[in-house]
Every structure is written in C-alpha cells, then in structure tokens.
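Q: Got a minute? One more chain.
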Amino acid sequence: MRKIHFLILLLLPTITTAGDGAQNSRYIHHVESFGFFDNREVQSPHQFSGTYFGTRLSADWGLQLAGSSIAAGGYVVKDFGQRGISASDWTLYYRYEGTRFSGAFGSFPRRLLFRELPDVFVDEALRYYTPNLGGALIQYHSPRASIELYCDWLSRQSPSEREIFEIASDGEWLASSTFHLGYNARLTHFSVRKGITPDKVYDKLMLNPHLTCSSHASSWGYYTLTVGLMASLNRDRTDKVWKSPYGMLCDATLGIPFARSSAAIELRYRGYHGKPLMSDYERYGALLHRGDPYYRSPHYDRADISAILLRSSHADCRVTASFHFTEGVVDNSQQIHVRLHF
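A: Always. Here it is, folded:
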C-alpha cells in the first residue's frame, strides 16, 4: 500500500499538466549520489574510533506552479560491509519561494537551508544518514540579510521512545563586503516516553553569535575567518539544576586554487576554548547531544588539509586529512566525499 501511495505522488505532475493551467506549471526534480569515507583514529576519551564508509542515493520529483511546488521521493543509505540498507526515509514536502520569504513543510532535504549549523551543533557523521528534516521551515532573504527558522521533529512519543524535537535558527547580516554579523541558535525539547516512566524532561538551548571576515574568490584564492561566543544552557528536570557552559569558537579557512582549474588546496582550523559543552553527556549521550563529541573537552583544536579535486555545478570531490588536538592527545581522521547531483 505504501508503494502505491508513493507511485501516485510521483504521477501527480503528469496528471496535473494534462489539465487546465498546465502551461503555467513545470516539472522539477533533484537527484543526488553521495559517497563518503570517514575513518577516525581516536585516543581522546571524548570521541570514538570507527569508520563510516558507504553511499547515499536520494531523489525527489515534483510540480511547480508559480511560487509553490510539491515534491515526493526518498533516500537510501548503504554502509559497505553491512547487509541490507542502513537508513532510508521518504521525502514529501510543500515548498514556497517568494521575493523575500520562502518556506517548506513536510519531510524536506537539508539542501533547502541557507546554511548548515556548525559541527558543534550537528556532527558531520549524522548528516551522512539524515539528509532530511521533518517539520517546517521559514526563510527571509534580502540583498544584505538572511534569516531562517525551522523545526525538526526527531522522535514521536511512544512507550519506548522519547518525544524529541529541535527548533533552530540562523541569520547573517552583511555589514560590508568583507564583514558579516551572524548567529546560530537551537532549542532542544527532550521529553519523556508515554506512560508511567522514570524519565524527566531535559531543556537545552545553544547560542552562537559571531563575526565573520571573508574575501571574494580571486585568482590567488579566498579566506574566511569566523569568531564568536558559544554558550549552552542546560537543565535536567531530574535535579532541576541549570548548567551554563560557554567559551570562544573560531573557524578559519584559506583556499588556494590550482592554476586554470576548479581544483584547490584548502586549509581549515576550528577551535573551542572554554568550559566543557554537552552537559550530562554520560547520562544521555548522542540521543540528546547531536554535535561532535570532541566539544566535551574544554580545549579542542582541529586542523584540516583538504584537496578539492573536482568542483562544478553538478559534481565535487574532496579528500581531507584532519588532526584533532585535545588535552595532550592528538587524534587523526581521513575523509573522502564524492557528490554528483542534478
């Protein structure tokens, strides 16, 4: 029955274009293949060793009429070395695109976002397996500013599952061609299971106001430097004690292109210095704290050396060697990302 419903949704554009008003509508689609290799060699007590190696295929089709569109599709993730499919889900959403305001409702792909939150909010490995958000998205954009607000419903309440959802927002204002003011914020509602359980609600708020200095891409390269405050406010209603770790977050990138090609060498530094984030991680783990566990350390520095072998409107390939410095320990990881989309 689910397959029949899916086929009907895919046929909607064909059925609709056969009727009145077809001349004002158009068929839309997006197909993406994403291959990932992420090997982590870890000694730090804050992170975990392991290898993510697999491929993801996602596709959606739909119909657009003026500023509105509907689309349906799905994605599947295959981990190499594991039998069967590792993750899969439907893509079903309504999308509105206006002159200043845009939005979406349903299970929609992350590519609709203006920006992804930093890895202190969402671990990179999590994005491999969850390319969709489930909920609603509202966006405002002008020549000098952009703001978005969205809800991602992660878990429906049941006798075995907590009710979990996140409300996130980010924004950017261009003070000049070089300097930008921005913020990232997220509220996590970590509720209880249905019925009589020992669970208590956990409240969590993360806020990252920042200043960015960047250059336009040129023949010599490009750079971006972002510095800001990273603060978190946490309360476990089991003991009703507020915890408020904070510190400074920095992200710097320098790109040097190869002559007469789209390839480039990219150097990137990320660092956090302050009080350990992710309070009560030992109790709730990644179910509550979805960011990179390295930020549990009071001092964390990461250096990436990337070779961008291919970069075009339809394809890109990146190879990265990463070094993680935390509390006297040096870890390393290697990533290969290959993406084809149209």
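A: The first helix runs from residue 2 to 17.
Q: Perfect, thanks.
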